[in-house]
Design brief:
3 domains; 9 helices
Amino acid sequence: MSTLNHHIDNIIHRYTVDLEPMQSIANHYNCTRVAVYYALKRAGVDTSKRTNGKVDARCEYCGKVIQVQRAKFRRNKHSFCNSECYYAWLDRKSAEGMMYVDSRQGRRIAREIISKVFSLQPGHIVHHEDRNATNNEYENLKVFQCQGDHLRYHRGFRVPILWDGAEYIRRKVA
């Protein structure tokens, strides 16, 4: 506990500014999450979820300041004030060159093509890099473990790619 008192300014900064979870701070100082909690309480930092559980963020589309839960803010790269702003932001991104062309038949064909060179399981998701489901060239296809990984990829996070068609072509040519 005395170690935490020596580093209280750093702990406060990590919790309030960097929005680091208490467990992560505790792991860094080799103590329990409860010890970090009590150190923050002694320093006068409000740790209640009702008041301090939210942080100020800006809506990615309209710029409005909104309150977002700390954990959600850490987890997501973009914040939106409502679903209308989210879909408007997606439309703007599409207008910037990422048009989405849906085709159930194209998705089915993509799964058949990939199944010839990769052991595709029922839960795996086939992703079309150019968002055109009728473009089933190897270079345009990727496979993700689940829909959650696929969504995280679209939102800009690094996720494991089970199979990459562009990489497959590079290895095949080499």
